[in-house]
Amino acid sequence: MIKDISGLHHVTSMAGDAAENNTFFTDTLGLRRVKKTVNFDSPETYHLYYGDEVGTPGSVMTYFPFANMSKGRRGTGEVATTEFAVPKGALAFWQDRLGNRGVTGLNKTSFLGENRLQFDGPDGDGFALVEADTKGRTPWTGTDVPEDAGILGFHGARFALRDAAATGELLGFMGYQRDEADGNVIRYRMENGNGADTIDLEELPSAHTAGQGAGSVHHIAFAVDDRATQLEVRKALMDTGYQVTPVIDRDYFWAIYFRTPGGILFEVATNEPGFDRDEDTKHLGEALKLPDRYEPHRAQIEALLPKLSS
């Protein structure tokens, strides 16, 4: 069993309009844009990162906004809901705020004793705010969202699967412990993790397969401390039979990827070097940062990218 994963690192999704995506996360949700860069494989497309003040692993939602991309089709084999943690008692604030801003899909529920507010993102993304213990985490306070209601980081994620057994076995191998179940949803929890600790598996045997598009999660990443630990995790996964990519330098972390039995793309990402490797913390996410190989083409790339509000 792998013992070095501490919870989620980031979640990466796809969007349609970059400006709309940026406004939703920085204004409506009150997160900080901690990095403005490009898709390393498609540099005419942004890669936008939103999180807490410094982009702490376990707080970062990232997006590839492809202009005119068609909407994704919800179904099995995907991360159906990305869950953010908020302080206890904060959901009334968020229900008013999101309702006043025209956010759709608002639905206040509970699961395993936790109060939740489900809502849709601009492209139909599935989100939930979950009241949780702060676990030492603090929200970004650079917006009009008060600190006692601000998003602390991720709470976890919910997968939609036709059969949850094989993915549950994988999560157990990755260090998650099977927790409680409610109906067709089984919770797995990372004990003593980074706060982004839970994965819920929702079993939907009759549902159709999801189709990726705007509003779909592209991959979900799990956190390890450093590159040496990542190599140990990679070996353990490969020894178990998973096809894992070589280590890829993503400038702000190193990454490996593999496909799960349920069809979801997993990443294991390092907590190092972090988002301040090329920007002062006070100015994270302000300038367009490019991988070295694209710097000679900066003028052409900037001309293709839409303008974003600060």
Account of the 3D structure:
The protein is built from five helices and 16 strands. It is of the alpha+beta class and 310 residues long. The protein has one domain (8-304): 2,3-Dihydroxybiphenyl 1,2-Dioxygenase, domain 1. It has an eight-stranded mixed sheet. An eight-stranded mixed sheet has the order 6-7-8-5-9-12-11-10, covered by helices on one side. The mean pLDDT is 97.
* Overall outline: globular
Overall SS class: alpha+beta
How many strands, which pairing sense, and closed or not: the largest β-sheet?
8 strands, mixed
**Order of neighbouring strands in the sheet with most strands:** 2-3-4-1-13-16-15-14
Number of strands: 16
For the record, give the distance between the C-alpha atoms at the N and C termini, rounded to a whole number. Answer: 44 Å
- Average pLDDT, rounded to a whole number, is 97
| CA radius of gyration | 18 Å
Instruction: Please state roughly what percent of the residues sit in beta strands, choosing from under 5%, 5-15%, 15-25%, 25-35%, 35-45% or over 45%.
Output: 35-45%
In CATH terms, the superfamily is: 2,3-Dihydroxybiphenyl 1,2-Dioxygenase, domain 1
What is the level 1 CATH name? Alpha Beta
List segments where confidence is low: pLDDT < 50 over at least 5 consecutive residues: none
Provide the succession of SSEs: EHEEEEHEEEEHEEEEHEEEH
Number of domains: 1
What is the CATH topology assignment? 2,3-Dihydroxybiphenyl 1,2-Dioxygenase, domain 1
Q: What share of the residues lie within helices?
A: 10-25%
